[in-house]
Sequence to fold (890 residues):
Amino acid sequence: MAVRLKASEKILYNALIKAEAQNIADEFLQSGLPNRKNESYHYSDLKLLLDNIPDILENGEFSSEPEFNIAGAYNIFINNGRVEIAKKLPKDVEIGTISGTVFTPENDIVAKLNSALSKESLQLEIKGNLENIIYIEHRSNGQASFINDNIEIELLANANAIIIEIFTSSNNSHLSNHASRINLAENSNLTHIVLDLSAKENRHLYTLTYEVEKEARLNSLIIHKGANLARTQLFAKFVGENSHADFSGLTLAESEQHSDISINISHAVANTSSSENYKSVVRDRAKGIFQGKILVERDAQKIDAKMMHKGLMLSDDAQILVKPELEIYADDVICGHGATCGELDKDSLFYLMSRGIAYETARAMLIKAFLAEIFDFVENKNIHEILQKLIDDWLN
Amino acid sequence: MASVKENIDKETIEQVKKIDVQEYKYGFETKIESDKAPRGLSEDIVRFISAKKNEPEWMLNWRLEAYRRWLTMDEPKWAKLRYPKIDFNEIYFYAAPKSASAPKSLDEVDPELLRTYEKLGIPLSEQAVLAGVEGAKVAVDAVFDSVSVVTTFREELAKSGIIFCSISEAIKEHPELIKKYLASVVPITDNYYSTLNCAVFTDGSFVYIPKGVRCPMELSTYFRINEKNTGQFERTLIIAEEGSYVSYLEGCTAPMRDENQLHAAVVELIALDDAEIKYSTVQNWYPGNKEGKGGIYNFVTKRGDCRGKNSKISWTQVETGSAITWKYPSCILRGDNSRGEFYSIAISNGYQQIDSGTKMIHLGKNSSSRIISKGIAAGFSDNTYRGLVSAHNRAKGARNFTQCDSLLIGDKCGAHTVPYIEAKNASIVFEHEATTSKISDEQLFYCQQRGLDEEEAVALIVNGFVRDVIQHLPMEFMVETQKLINISLEGSVG
Fold:
């Protein structure tokens, strides 16, 4: 039975029809945008939250300088969905673009919208040991526009890379729907850092999919700072034995921001392990949302998975909404999750103040200490500085 | 070595040995003539039930309103449960033993019924005590299919001003209390099954503890489904006035049958200022046979309202039975400094499916709650903990601690944890912890090295695993529960 579409949903439906994505349009007609009854959108009812959908526009002024200059980085820009490569990439990286999208997204209507509407897909194939960082900047500029872009990255066997993705935008009410799919082949190693720094007027949706093969290592970090509505959904699947991934993330939310990180970790084969470590800091009337699900499939024995979410509330009208989930079908596993939320520890504050540190400084010290743990693992000095500065700016 | 062995309840082990794999000891059927409503559900059936109970008109209208509302509702689908659609037209909504019409004393109760309860180990004679516990008096309300057959110790309780009777009686005798409190915790329109219950509930217990009274004995209700194709819809209402205390136990069993039977109960607790209610359940409905055939569908809405300041409600449950359990005993912590507790052991074996947990809704200042949930999944079963802890913006200083641990025995079962945590002001402290694992080989090895066989070792470890919860059960239930746990897990080792 088709649902009644809201005005904003009708715009999306028409966009799908225009893009000749009849199948997805039909499906969209049945489901509409996900609402709170859809468990993965329990705290982010897009039917309610998404309105004023702008047109798909590609014009805009784009600077040739990146937001962050990282020494030796290979810069790639995605300007309102169009890929632009600023500097020649090394021989270890094959790069190309394909019109439309090539990968089958998760069974999720937001990801499907992206795949139907994105005009160009960035393709990266990485082999060998990359010394320099790959820096990808997604920009939404010009008038408010509806942007869909998508990236597919293949790390071939034994490859080693650091990729940082930044989202920026002008102060217009864009709606950007991004998707990245990253495949880690046997024994490859990837550090993947994602920062949403878009303007407060922006709406940011991001679908991130990882597939981790035999003996591969992944380090994934997501930071939400920008956007009025930010939602990252992460799907990771372990498909080869002896692989391991560390997932971490940080939500900094203030004023009326609605910031949602939802992760789905699937251990489909035996002898794989993961850790999930997320933190949220909220103030004013912001909402920090974390949903985390660890799925251990039948016969995927010897799994070790630990998930933690810590929420810090700096003002009384802020909210932290958390749903950590375990879905376990194999018995020889050690899985756990923990979740805490509350305000700054009064005893610690008192301790610092009794030693002559002003209230504001003491508070900032404690918050910084709380947050810094998340990106301690980042070895690259340039990136570490960027992250540190990001937090400092937010606190001041 | 000897000391380790002593720690195990010897009796428990023997109990396990005596019983064949997955045998359900309460599976017998009582041959008794019963008076039934026609199959199916309609407004006429609702009128029939109300008439059978000689209810006043306001009650009938209340039921009809619920029934009409129910017709517009859909079955909830969010739980991790799979079962064929329930055909409400195949169910008898009312079945009562013919001889059960208002016995004045125990002597008038059908001896067949008394024998049934005797077999179940439930003392209906006031001289008798629960097996294994000396000197403990327990008042029992026995509910057989759709009616309450007897309530013991009524006079003694009445001396303290306590009202303990069946809810049908309360509707007639104490309409002012019923009108004031019924559906004040679980609204008529709360959910599909509770609304259905409002329309067709047939009996249940009513407890009223007056101001400042500490109930001198344990109160209990014992539910028994006997008749074929019947559903049991009972309704329990407990009101604890200012400064009072009551501890209430609930037990349930049913005969073994190939069909699935429906049990949809509503329990409402109201604790006013400084009052405390302790509610314990040992749910041991027939879980179905080895192939997953038959068993009770248990869709229950239980909710307590800590309405007054400093009030306290604690739920303790041991869930071992039922083919399907859908049950979330919750606390609304409305009063300042109120406290809610939830202790649960949920054991699933065979093809059982459990989706159970709690909700702690913090509304009052400095309200606190604690959740300890232990799930054990064996066989082909699925065992889900689903819980909500939320603090409203006004609930300054709310505090929650949650621990849910799951244990998997065998590689064909599933254990899941789905907690929702909603913090809406900064002065709260919520902590949540969950783990899933199996009994480690090291633990087993350690025990076996000290001379325990595998089954004994598992029993010891499992008893240790659930200990945090067991100790919150009233004495009367502790012994029973330890046995039950071992029986439920029998056959799941190796």
Summary: Chain A has two domains: 58-343, 344-396. The helical segments of chain A are 7-18, 22-31, 46-49, 109-117, 346-354, 359-375, 381-395.
